[in-house]
Amino acid sequence: MIGPDLHFRWMFAENAFRPIRSAGRGLLRVCLPQVGVELPVRQIMRQRVRSKRRSSASASPIPPSRRWSAPLLIALGLFVGFPSVSAHADLATFLSGINRGGERWRMHMTTSPAGSLHEAEMVFNDPITTAAIGDGAGMTLPDGGKVSLASADKQSDPRTDEERVNRREKKGRIVTVAPVTPPKDFSAGSILQRTSGLTIPLFDTQERMVFARPKIRGQEIEIATAFYKKLAPKRDEAMSPMIASLVTNQRADILATAYAPAAPDYARESPFDSILKDDAAAGRFIPDISPEDHAWAANPLPADAFSEAEQKCLTAGIYFESRGESAKGQAAVAQVILNRVRNPTYPGSICGVVYQNKALYNRCQFSFACDRIPDIVWSPSHWQTAKEIALAVTAGKIWLPEVGSATHYHATYVRPDWGPTMKRLTQIGKHIFYRTYGGGWS
Fold first, then answer.
1. How far is CA 318 from its chain centroid?
2. What pLDDT does residue 244 have?
3. Can you list the positions of beta strands (E) in 90-208?
4. Helical axes 308-322 vs 380-395, angle rounded to 10°
5. Quick count: other Cβ atoms within 10 Å of Cβ 427?
6. b/e string for 398-418 if b means 16 or more Cβ within 10 A?
7. Which of 137, 208, 293, 322 is 20–30 Å from 277 (CA)?
8. What residues does 18 pair with on adjacent strands?
9. pLDDT tens for residues 127-155?
């Protein structure tokens, strides 16, 4: 406030008064640019009050319609936001199952602890022992309908069956049941009362059933063979007669498509084998090894052993190692190569076994692969024979038991250092075959 005893100096700059310093008593000095005017304080205050009244009077008054527009908009928003009566949104009544409309106004919201979660549950009469809902529990739907609630775990009725079951509307049976006497030999008493069973049974002299002597007795086999005629085994047309004489297994590996028959040969297998198939090896050739052979010899060959590249490597090994031998001698060499493929100690492919250590001069597994002599096929007929033997041994058509699981051989005109360290098996032609004692490399 500006008292009568206070004196200020006001400076008018940019349409505003501001005090500069105190002036004479009872006067207010107003300084205009380069002009100083001293006026009494009361006169200046009166002029300021009059100017405020004039400005407020000059403003246009608010019409009555605008004064009620804001409350009406707020009321309309509340009406749209709350379509139902707020007093009926009583969760406590819904959960308790008691329709007490007079206590809905007491419900209010409370502050929940930070981070807590609350799940709405029904209020039970005995939530600890029986978890049962009281009689008359229910809830009112928004449309005014009422739904009653029943407990999922119903209590057992303490009444007896005679009291609980209503038999007032029941009547007698429609169909009468006639009493049936028990069988003649039936007795529900003690077994000691049946003295008739302790005596020797009496046989009936009348024959009730007999077996007649068949008229074809002794001719059963002859009649059975009439329906299953034993034919002579068919010669495999895919093999030459020289190789066919070495065949020891009529069922080739399922992956050897060259030996797949167009139709089943019932001279070697039963007609029921086409339907009742029970092959644990799933058609793969598993060599029939002896107890002296190593267990790895029963492993099937890899699937790519029948590929063209693998068969070419096996044919080359047979041709360059034993083309001068008989068909059996060539099959024995092929069996040694495939035994190394089955052996986990050696490479797992035919080409890997045949050309193992081929970069070492005269130190490889098969001499033709590292003797630095060009491998040229000068005899196409011997190459074709070696090719047929390679496929037959790979498919399992030929398996020589005397060779078994042998992995080494040498010519009769050489004496290798490893010969005395292995088990000598047999000699076929000019090759002597050996089997290792441990089943590994040596």
1. 48
2. 83
3. 138-140, 146-148
4. 120
5. 14
6. bbbeebbbbbbbbeeeeeeee
7. 293
8. 11
9. 444 445 555 567 777 777 777 666 655 56
Cβ(339)–Cβ(298) under 8 Å? no
For 223-256, how does the pLDDT look when each residue is reduced to its tens digit (9 = 90+)? 877 777 666 666 666 677 888 888 888 778 888 7
Q: Which residues of 257-295 are buried (b: 16+ CB within 10 A; e: fewer)?
A: eebeeeeeeeeeeeeeeeeeeeeeeeeebebebeeebbe
> What backbone torsions phi and psi does residue 245 show, to the nearest 5 degrees?
-70, -15
Other CB atoms within a 10 A radius of the CB of residue 325 amount to 17
Strand partners, 138: 148
In this structure, CATH architecture of domain 295-435: Orthogonal Bundle (1.10)
CA distances from 266 to 250, 282, 326, 382, 384 (A): 12, 20, 32, 34, 31
- Take residue 289 and report the two structure tokens written for it: 């090894």
> Would the CA dihedral through 332, 338, 342, 346 be positive or negative?
positive
Residues 38 and 20: their CA atoms lie apart, in Å, by 13
User: Are residues 333 and 315 in contact, defined by beta-carbon separation less than 8 angstroms?
Assistant: no
Domain extents in the chain: 9-54, 295-435
352: amino acid identity, one letter? G
Contact 331, 400 (CB under 8 A): yes
Q: Are 238 and 258 in contact (CB under 8 A)?
A: yes
Q: Quick one: which of 98, 153, 150 has its CA closest to 131? A: 153
